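the two lines:
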Amino acid sequence: MADNLEEIQKSIKKYIIIGSLLIVFTVITVGLSYVELPTHGMNIMVGMIVATFKAGLVALIFMHLNHERSVIYKILAFTVAFAIVLFLLFHFSHVDPLVFKDFDATSAVTH
Amino acid sequence: MDIPFTVSARPDTGLYNAKLGIWLFLASEVMLFGGLFSAYIFLRVGADYHWPIHELPVLPGFVNTMVLIASSVTIVMAWASLKLRRIFQFKLFMAITVACAGVFMVLKGFEYNAKFHHYSVELQDGTILTGHLPQGYEIKFGEATELSLTIQSENAAMDANPVKYVFPYLEGEAPAFKLADGSEIRLDKAGFSKLKKETVAAAREKIEKRKQELVEAGKKGEADALNVVPPTTVKLTAVSPMKFSVKPSKTFGYTAESITFKDGTVVKGKLLDDRMTLEVDGVDARSVADKEKSLAWEKKYLGEDWKKVFIANRDHAQHEFKEKYGDGRDPLKSATLQKHSYFMHIHSTTPSDHAPEGAGHSASNEAPAAAEGGHGDEAHGHHPTVVLDKKDISFFSNFTPKLNTYYAIYFTLTGLHGLHVVAGALVLAWFWLCNGKLLKTNPEHLANRVEVGGLFWHFVDLVWIFLFPLLYLL
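prediction for all of em together
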C-alpha cells in the first residue's frame, strides 16, 4: 500500500493516465466489435482479451494489487482457480462421457 | 468497545482488518458473478435462436462504461486527496463519484424502460416482428351473459373471486345477475361475499344432512369419510350483456365462446376481437426457410412493397460482403451477414420513404441501436402498422426475461450489477456526508474506509468491463 505521502502524490498522475487508457481501450473494444474477423468466436476472443487487459489495469493500479500483502494474493489465488473451473465447466457439455472425445455436432450430421 | 486495527496494520497479516475483510468479500463476489458468467456461457452455447449481437443500444452502454471508469478514477483520487489531507478535493471527488453512480443508474433506467415497452412477436412460420403495441394487447369479448363461479367450501389455492379477477376487465358497470331461483343480486364486494357465505353454508348443510342419513342407515364408516365439503358451481345470468377487454395473461385461456379468468370463473359469450395491432420496427426472417415467402409479406400485413425493400436490403448486404471478402468467406457462416441480410429494421411509415440501409457498413450497424435507443413517444408514428391475426402468432413478449435466455441473463447480470452500483454509491455517500466527525478526529481511519469502499467500487467497474462487451457488443 502506498502509505508514503510522496508516493501518493506521484500516483495521482498515474491514476489519470490509467483512466484515459481504459477509455481508449473501451473505444477500441467497440470499434473491434464491428470488424468482422474470420469467425465470430475470434471476435469474442479478441474482445475478452482486451477486457481482461482492462480489468488487469483496474486491479493492479486502482486496487493496488501491484504492491499488496501476501495474504491477499493467497486469497485471490483460490478465487482465480475456482473462477477458471467455473468458466471451463461448459467444456464438459461438449465431451461425450462414453468415449471422452469432443462431440462434434456438424461432423455427426455429415458422416 | 474499540474495534482493533482500524488504522494500524495487524502484525500477522500486515493489513488493517477492514482491508482483509473487503478482499475476502470481493473473493466471494468473484464467485457470485463468476457463476453467472458461467451461466451466460452455457446459455449462449446452448441457444437455439440467433444470439443477439449489437442488439442493445451501444451508445448508452458505451457512455455508462465511460461514467464508471471516470468514477473509478475519482474514487481513487478522493482517497489520495484525503491521505494528503486536501479536504476540499476529497469531498469534491466523492461527490463526483456518487454523481457518476446516479448517471449510470438513470441511463440504465431508460434502457430497461425501453425494453419493457418494446415487443417481439413470433409468427407461426418463424418470422419475428419487433415493434410497439400502441394500444397494448387486449382481447375483446362481448355478448356475455352467463357467469359460472366455482365457490370453494374449504380452503383452496383457487377460489371464485369475480370482484378481483373478472370485473376489473369489464367495460362499464357490472350489471345485476339472476340466480337459478330467479332472485336478483349485485356482485359487488358485499353482494358476492353474501352469496359465497350462503353457498358454503348450503354445501355444508347438504353434507351434514347426508351424514345424518348415513348414520341413521347404520353406515357410520361412510359417514365419517365424508369430511370434505365439495365446491359448488353457481351459474348466474346477467340481466344485460357484458363486454370484456382483457389481456390474455389475465386469463387462463379463451375460446370463441368462453373465457376462463384467473379465479376459475368461466364467462360465456362471444369473442369479438383478438387481433394484435403492432407498429413494426423490424422484420427478422432469419428463422424462416423461404424468406421471400415469410408471413410478413402477405398482403394483409406488410405486403409486396416492403418485401422489395427487404430483398434490396439483403442483396445490398450480400454484395457488400462479397466485395469486402471475395470468395474467401462462407456467407452462410457469417452471423453478422445473416443479420444484416435478413433482419430488416424499419424506420419509415411507407416503403417508398425507406432509405436504403447500409449507405455505409456502420450505418446499418447503428440502426438497431437507434431503433432501440430512440424509444419513447417519438419512436411511434414512424413505422407501418399491421393488424396480426391471433392464429398467426405463435409467441409474443416484451424484451424481458420471458422473451429468451439472452434477455434472462441480460437482466440478471445487469440487474445484479446495478444493485451493486446502488449499494456502493450509498456507502460512499455515507462516507462523504455522514462521517464529518471522523474526518476531523481521525482522518486516517476515514481514509481507510474510503479505500475499502473504493476497492468495492473498482470491483463493480471491473464487472462492467466484462459485461459491456459480452452483452452489448459480441
